[in-house]
Amino acid sequence: MSMGDMNHSYPNVSGVPVWSANGKADSTKHAADFLSHCENAHENVPQLVVKCNTSPCRIELESIRVSGISVGSHPDEDSICSDSGFGGSPASLLLRKLSNASSSGLSPASSFEEYEDDRGFPDEVPRGVTWKKPGSTGTLPPLSVPPKKPQPWVQVVGHAGSFHAGDYGMLLKRYTEGEQQCLQRLMEDSLRPFVPGYHGVVQRAEQDYNMMDDLLTHFNSPAIMDCKIGTRTYLEEELTKARERPQPRQDMYEKMVDVDPEAPTTEEQALQAVLKTRYMQWRETLSSTTTLGFRIEGIKKADGVCNTNFKRTKSREAVKQALQDYVDCNALIVKGYLRRLKELRLVLETSDFFRTHEVVGSSLLFVHDSTGKTGVWMIDFGKTVPLPPPLTLDHRTPWEEGNREDGYLWGLDNLIDILTDILPYQT
Ligand SMILES: Nc1ncnc2c1ncn2[C@@H]1O[C@H](COP(=O)(O)OP(=O)(O)OP(=O)(O)O)[C@@H](O)[C@H]1O
Ligand SMILES: O=P(O)(O)O[C@@H]1[C@H](O)[C@H](O)[C@@H](OP(=O)(O)O)[C@H](OP(=O)(O)O)[C@H]1O
């Protein structure tokens, strides 16, 4: 599927549970997984209804009542760094624009391909589920996959209220077109194994969401760390806008004063507000963003203890200390992370997507658990923008306004260096 084929407001969704307009099941692991859960519930098996008499084609799930899984019951705003409730089953979602879905952009288990997948995700369609499409009905053949035990989703940092923890390994993030475009492109790029699988846009209570893999699904009581990568956390276009139409922000002034009452200038004090770019630059220099090209945003340890107080964690030594604490002196974990980060670096250095995008405000999400399983993925493409051709970035050249460089690879180099440094101290 070429990017040109994509309809921007109703994207050519890939990876969603797809029963295509011709009635042929394009089985996906998620459809199979989701429906095997429903089946296991032994109650009111939902009906997949494919509606193809309208354009775009859509799938709805009817008769939703699944034992042991609350549907649509969790609050809209999951508190940061806390376990989310369950609910919000994809069953309650309207999956949009399925008529053109192609397998080319399907999200495979790629995000997890280093692990043995206990779900199997065979190329089968679910058992006992009746599907209907106007003009035809049929019963899909059996599925022999055991249901996956749900794991609570945890948000470490980021905007409150932007996420819904879906069931069946899905996570919904408030829709932005820019992020959707990136996730779609990433599904076609060599970086695909390093980003959450993307499954298109879904609507819930009249709000659109980008649906992606919940990266915590395959871990038990995971420890999680969010590191924002790059030397710059605002886009060049934000800088231009701030100059053309300055919009001082009181909330950012207050956040600034909370950390350092001396930080605002006299003018800002008089205004009781700061520009966003000024706030972002202040955050960058207060933390290790400017000096190391990445900063720790938040850490949630396996015991549930969460720390998002890293605004002043700046020196290499302080960062090293925080990383050491995060890995609990476990050499196996450090080695796992280092292996993955080095692989990521190799892929980044040749990725078409990466070369042609300014990647700002994006994070690496680190996850490990007591079994020694580790994973690192790139997340948050809300401020990742395509460059005007033929401009490309090497992501290591220092930023000067106009060159669009973001320092991503330089930050990754430093992160790898520091983790390598702590290795001899682990047991
Ligand atoms: N695919 C995912 N799987 C599991 N957890 C995720 C995933 N995506 C995001 N998270 C969780 O949500 C948090 C915030 O994610 P993200 O950075 O995308 O949000 P945001 O609101 O855009 O952040 P920002 O404030 O930097 O703009 C992450 O730290 C992580 O805990
Ligand atoms: O971490 P802090 O100190 O709370 O600051 C926030 C953080 O820098 C976010 O990355 C940013 O969102 P974006 O990356 O999406 O710009 C947000 O801007 P916002 O308030 O305009 O959303 C800031 O308030």
Walkthrough of the structure:
The protein is of the alpha+beta class. Helix content is 26%, strand content 19%. It has helices spanning 29-40, 177-186, 236-244, 250-259, 266-271, 276-286, 289-292, 316-326, 331-348, 352-355, 408-422, and strands at 18-19, 25-26, 47-51, 58-62, 94-95, 130-133, 136-139, 163-165, 170-174, 198-204, 207-213, 223-229, 294-300, 306-307, 357-359, 363-368, 374-379, 384-386. It has a five-stranded antiparallel beta sheet, covered by helices on one side. Strands 14-13-12-16-17 form a five-stranded antiparallel beta sheet. α8 (316-326) packs across α11 (408-422). The longest helix is centred in the last third of the chain and has 18 residues, at 331-348. The protein is globular. The termini are far apart. Adenosine-5'-triphosphate binds at residues 155-159, 162, 171, 196, 212-216, 224, 226, 361, 363, 365, 379-380, 382.
Q: Briefly, what is this?
A:
It contains eleven helices and 18 strands. With 427 residues, the protein is of the alpha+beta class. The chain is globular.
Radius of gyration over alpha carbons?
22 Å
Ranges where pLDDT stays below 50 over 5 or more residues in a row are: 1-79, 84-144
| Spatial separation of the terminal alpha carbons | 48 Å
For the largest beta-sheet, the strand count, sense and barrel status come to:
5 strands, antiparallel
Helix share bin: 25-40%
Which cofactor or ligand species appear? adenosine-5'-triphosphate, D-MYO-inositol-1,4,5-triphosphate
| Helix-strand string | EEHEEEEEEEHEEEHHHHHEEHHHEEEEH
Q: How many individual β-strands?
A: 18
User: How would you state the average pLDDT, rounded?
Assistant: 74
InterPro entries: IPK, IPK_sf
EC number: 2.7.-.-
Family: Belongs to the inositol phosphokinase (IPK) family.
Region (Disordered): 103-148
